[in-house]
Design a protein that fits this description.
By secondary structure, the protein is an alpha+beta fold. Among the domains are: 100 residues, NusA, N-terminal domain (N Utilization Substance Protein A, Chain:P, domain 4, 2-Layer Sandwich), CATH 3.30.1480.10; 67 residues, Nucleic acid-binding proteins (OB fold (Dihydrolipoamide Acetyltransferase, E2P)), CATH 2.40.50; 142 residues, K homology (KH) domain (GMP Synthetase, Chain A, domain 3). The chain is built from 19 helices and 17 strands. A five-stranded mixed barrel has the order 4-5-6-8-7. A five-stranded mixed sheet has the order 9-10-11-17-16, with helices on both faces. The chain is elongated, with a radius of gyration of 33 Å.
């Protein structure tokens, strides 16, 4: 075997397959070793080494170097065919490893390709070197694809499947929104504007909190763009998904109200021991703060990283009185300790059952034994209350006609009834929104069974677009922008009387 020929083969494979030369040399050595074992059998100790500079192979059999003539006999026709198969296998493995490493580095990054085929709901996308898989569960609800459609997604996972590499794509992952912001907004790509937090319910609504290192730049306005051009491209790519752009603030007292807009927040009470925030709003703002089926407060909780409970002042006062009375009934808990616990945000037996004993001892000056007894009682009471609530829910589900109203209770990010959606609709009707446009939007939402995408705001629009900016009372600046597909379409108001007259004339 000529050393120069070996070097030419290595260079060609390295260029064509983008495989490291050392891997190619190793594959050739393994191929020659396989041929030598076929020639000498397994009773001899064999080793093969190729000089990386000259390409000359050296074969040792029981520590003795074999001459070129013997090497030629080893690489006979049959042995050479075996060596070729080993070499091809090694190259394929090296190619697979190269592609695997390449796409592992691209995890959660954006890629694009064309649809090659659709199989059982899953979409196979040609990415160039490899074919990616977009499962049905990673597709935005309601969207569909056809062959040759251009698709953008993020790399969710990369797996080795035999000799192939399987690349799993996603369009529902929150990083999909992040990558689109980097693609459409140069300030985000250049790290002038930073996406600090992101919460998403794919196909329905996203909240994006942004900040800027330069205080002279309006980070919210920069993300919206002139006449909403920048954010419109993102909304279109996400199949009309509504996007709320929130101004980030390191203070939860400011960030939480920003994240709940367009609702107006009266007060924010922090409960650090439980990682909870209690938000007080007026009665007329409660539906807006909660959102349709709890979506607004649920996304806000994900955005700020704290559990958010929304309630009115009346509900809070009632809850405080009930909780103090309930905690005071626990042996060892005085009324002063109960009030202290409530002031820290402990509103239920469950909250008390998960408190750290040292925290309870610090609040009430109790011994470790007393703290354990209180926590045990709270744990039993929590299980009892949960069982009663489950029985009540079961009875209501089994009851054909249940007209009894549920008592008022604080609403957290994970629970919201249909009555809240109806209240939100009533609040939306009070806003100065085009009647025809609002009615059309509601019909579309009802047909698709999606949350309402009508933004409820009371402030001036951003430059002639439907993207609306809400001003925070604390900063007197735009703190959130709500963008939906409907809000980006400018429509002329319809003159109902003229339309009716024209219709009558045509009929006559």
């Amino acid at each position: 075997m000529d050393g120069k020929e070996v070097l030419r083969i290595v260079d060609a494979i390295q260029r064509d397959k983008n495989i490291d030369k050392e891997i190619v040399f190793g594959g050739i050595e393994q191929a020659i070793l396989s041929a030598a074992r076929r020639h000498f059998g397994d009773d001899h100790e064999l080793s093969v080494d190729i000089d990386r500079d000259t390409g000359e192979p050296t074969v040792l059999c029981d520590s003795e170097k074999l001459g070129k003539d013997i090497l030629g006999e080893i690489l006979g026709r049959v042995a050479a065919q075996t060596a070729k198969q080993v070499m091809i296998q090694k190259i394929r493995e090296a190619e697979r490893d190269t592609v695997f490493d390449e796409y592992m580095e691209m995890q959660y990054q954006s890629v694009s390709g064309t649809v090659s085929r659709v199989e059982g709901g899953a979409v196979l996308i040609n990415l160039g070197k490899i074919e990616g898989i977009l499962p049905r569960g990673e597709q935005i609800p309601g969207e569909s694809f056809r062959v040759n459609d251009r698709v953008r997604a993020v790399v969710l996972d990369v797996r080795k499947a035999g000799s192939r590499v399987k690349v799993i794509l996603s369009r529902t992952h929150p990083d999909m929104v992040r990558r689109l912001f980097e693609l459409e907004i140069p300030e985000v790509a250049d790290r002038i504007i930073d996406v600090r937090s992101l919460a998403r319910e794919a196909g329905y609504r996203s909240k994006v909190a942004v900040s800027c290192i330069d205080s002279s730049i309006d980070c919210v306005g920069a993300c919206v763009g002139m006449r909403g051009a920048r954010i419109k491209n993102i909304v279109d790519e996400l199949a009309g998904e509504r996007i709320d752009i929130v101004r980030w603030n390191d203070s939860l007292q400011v960030l939480v109200p920003n994240s709940l807009q367009p609702a107006e927040v009266e007060d924010v009470i922090l409960c650090p021991m439980l990682g909870r925030v209690i938000v007080l709003v007026r009665d007329d703002q409660l539906p807006l703060a909660i959102g349709r089926k709890g979506q607004n407060v649920r996304l806000a909780s994900k955005l700020v990283g704290w559990d958010i409970e929304v309630m009115t002042q009346t509900e809070l006062d009632e809850q405080l009185d009930k909780t103090v009375e309930a905690f005071s009934s626990i042996p060892g808990v005085s009324e002063e300790l109960a009030e202290s616990l409530v002031s820290q945000g402990f509103f239920s037996y469950y909250d008390l059952s998960v408190i750290e004993p040292d925290q309870l001892a610090e609040l009430g000056g109790l011994t470790a034994e007393q703290c354990e007894q209180i926590v045990d009682v709270a744990d039993r009471e929590s299980e009892r209350v949960e069982a009663e609530e489950e029985a009540m829910r079961t009875a209501q589900r089994n009851s054909p006609a249940s007209g009894a109203q549920k008592p008022a209770a604080p609403v957290d990010a994970g629970a919201q009834g249909e009555e809240t959606a109806q209240q939100e609709e009533a609040a939306i009707q009070d806003e100065p929104v085009e009647q025809d446009e609002s009615a059309a939007a509601e019909e579309l939402e009802s047909a698709e069974e999606k949350p309402s995408e009508t933004a409820v705001v009371e402030n001036e629009p951003v430059e002639e677009t439907g993207a609306v900016v809400n001003d925070s009372e604390d900063t007197a600046e735009a703190d959130v922008t709500t963008v939906s597909e409907e809000s980006l379409v400018e429509e002329e108001p319809v003159n109902v009387e003229n339309s009716a007259e024209e219709s009558t004339e045509k009929q006559e």
